[in-house]
Design brief:
The complex is a heterotrimer. By secondary structure, chain A is an alpha/beta fold. Chain A contains seven helices and nine strands. Chain A folds into two domains: 2-118, Rossmann fold; 137-210, no CATH class. Chain B is mainly α. Classes of the chains: A alpha/beta, B mainly alpha, C alpha/beta.
Chain lengths: 222, 61, 311
């Protein structure tokens, strides 16, 4: 899922403090799973902002709300009333949701309450790590199910490099060496020969490097 | 609870102002103890920043 | 006599069966040409070719191509280096043509240290290609006369292609296989990471020779003399992929105050002697970074002088 981290309270306060009617709006899908931007988190943030407003003697009306997700029209439709009533909307969705909300209500100021970080998994409660770089041309079948573009710090496709150190990446002992992992996984599966195969230069057109991407399903599109 | 206390710190409110106690309806004496102890704690801490902010606003009006 | 791939001095020395001896020279952190020329002067005539690093340890310096040109003008043969961290395939192919046009004939293809190590950790890295794909690119440009796009190159660059190898990084089992892969993709010569654990290196070379890799590619053993006990300890603990046996640290310690550098050189000289006889090793790559003034002495004592002149 998409993982994000709430911006610091200082930064958020700096963005909203000069407005009168603020709506703190959550998204209950991905960012709720990482407990950073869900509807519950929106309520908590709203409460904190009210306390700050009181202490700084600012006459503000801070409302909270949220929908299932901010990246689909059918849910955004439900947000209309609350959004129209506010001077500014602090969206706790990922970057996609914040933008989509802004597109739906283009005359409203929509601010990001989260820093969207990565596509990842839940390793353990409260612990998330990155897994996919959305390169658009998946090679997981060549690397034993471990993505070198994402998990190798240098995105090597024919790794490891000379800095692989006791199973860790040279940049940080907490980052496992992706190619060590790939090697071990393939060895365990008896498919070690895959590592000897040269992966030629990658076609990055399908990635974000090729420009903002779009996708259409002709059979589903109206 | 820990988490809530860290949130309170972010808005300059002493985390000691918030506490959770677990007891049953039959634990009368314990309840009395907690009330006294907590009241003392709060008295020592004095009015919260929220109280001060409210008071300042009332004075202005 | 079959044709040379590049006609470089290094290639000629290796091909004629001489034991090669290469050095290293880091470009300046600035445009200080004089200091670079001073360092180069110590190496001239004492080594067959000189590595010119490319933003080593992700610290911004004068580019390898620029410093290589200066060395060329000073009468030395540079080993131009290119890392994959800072350039995409367009810039790479473009620079490859550029340096070739200026007379450079040796090129090392490396991944590059991650920018988080260096002085610009906020920079965006490139890694459009990895080091193996870069070797493949240079080989394609040289032998097929084509860009990666498939388009023909008018006057293609003929480089002697080098790569790096670290026999000591984990996983050890993969190191020889990775070397084999680099050779299959086009590496003509390899320089290893600096060696201190001779036992492990012997084991590595045995596997290399068993696979016949030394016949397809020239292998140069990396040697860096220890200057001080501090350096030895630092290398042992702080540098990823470096294997410094405790026995060496003890040996340096035992040399006594003020005598550690000499002991470090002695160890290096012993290593060089063994490398000359070791099956599969075609030469030594001496990395005496910021110690270039000691190279003439080391070259002399190692019996490397005079360097062969192969026409």
């Amino acid at each position: 899922m998409i993982v994000g981290k709430q911006k610091s309270l200082e930064e958020i306060w700096g963005m909203v403090k000069d407005y009168k009617k603020v709506l703190v709006f959550g998204c209950n899908t991905c960012v709720a799973i990482c407990h950073e931007g869900g509807n519950k988190e929106a309520e908590i943030l709203g409460a904190l902002l009210r306390m700050k407003a009181k202490q700084e003697n600012r006459d503000m009306e801070i409302e909270t709300g949220g929908i299932e997700r901010q990246c689909e029209h059918e849910y955004l439709d439900q947000a209309a009333e609350a959004v129209e009533a506010a001077d500014v909307i602090l969206s706790l969705a990922c970057g996609a949701g914040v933008q989509f909300l802004g597109e739906k209500f283009p005359l409203k100021t929509v601010l990001p309450g989260l820093n969207t970080t990565f596509i990842g998994v839940v390793d353990a409660p409260g612990e998330f790590s990155e897994r996919c770089q959305m390169c658009g041309e998946c090679i997981l079948h060549l690397t034993g199910g471990i993505c070198p573009i994402t998990r190798c710090s240098k995105s090597l496709m024919n790794g490891p490099c000379g800095g692989s150190n006791n199973g860790s990446c040279e940049i940080n002992p907490d980052v496992p060496c992706a190619w060590q992992m790939i090697h071990e996984r393939l060895e365990a599966q008896g498919r070690s020969h895959l590592i000897d195969i040269f992966i030629p230069p990658k076609n990055w057109i399908t990635s974000r490097a090729g420009g903002p991407r779009k996708q259409k399903r002709e059979d589903l599109a109206k | 609870m820990q988490h809530l206390k860290t949130l309170l710190i972010k808005v300059d409110i002493d985390p000691d102002r918030l506490e959770m106690y677990n007891l049953s309806a039959a634990m009368g004496p314990k309840w009395k103890e907690i009330c006294i102890e907590f009241t003392e704690r709060i008295k020592k801490l004095g009015p919260s920043p929220i109280w001060w902010a409210d008071r300042d606003r009332e004075i202005k009006e | 006599m079959s044709e040379y791939k590049s006609g470089s001095n290094l290639e000629k020395v290796l091909k004629s069966g001489h034991f090669a001896f290469t050095g290293e020279c880091g470009p300046p952190v600035g445009a200080d040409v004089e200091h670079l020329k001073e360092k180069a002067a110590y190496l001239k005539g004492r080594v067959d070719a000189v590595n010119v690093t490319d933003n080593q340890t992700a610290v911004a310096r004068m580019s390898s191509w620029a410093a290589s040109l200066i060395l060329l003008q000073e009468g030395l043969e540079p080993n131009f280096q290119m890392v994959c961290r800072d350039r995409n395939r367009l810039a790479m192919q473009s620079d490859i043509l550029g340096v070739y046009a200026h007379g450079i004939r040796n090129m090392l293809c490396l991944s590059g240290d991650h920018q988080r190590f260096g002085d610009h950790p906020e920079a965006k890295n490139v890694f459009d290609l990895d080091s193996m794909q870069l070797i493949y690119t240079v080989k394609t440009m040289r032998d097929e006369g084509k860009f990666l796009s498939g388009k023909d190159i008018k006057v293609s660059p003929k480089f002697f292609i080098g790569a790096a190898c670290n026999p000591f990084a984990e996983p050890f089992a993969l190191r020889v296989r990775r070397l084999a892969k680099k050779i299959a993709v086009g590496a003509d010569f390899i320089q290893t990471q600096c060696i201190y654990n001779m036992e492990k290196f012997r084991e590595f070379m045995k596997q290399v020779v068993d696979l016949g890799l030394h016949e397809k590619c020239y292998i140069l053993a990396g040697i860096t003399p220890m200057k001080s006990l501090g350096m030895a300890r630092y290398m042992a603990s702080k540098v990823p992929g470096m294997d410094v046996p405790d026995s060496l640290i003890q040996r340096l310690k035992g040399a006594g105050k003020g005598k550690v550098a000499e002991e470090g050189i002695r160890f290096a000289l012993e290593q060089i002697e063994e490398m000359k006889e070791m099956n599969g090793v075609s030469g030594v790559h001496l990395m005496a970074i910021e110690w270039e003034h000691r190279v003439p002495e080391i070259a002399e004592r190692a019996g490397m002088l005079p360097r062969p002149q192969v026409s």
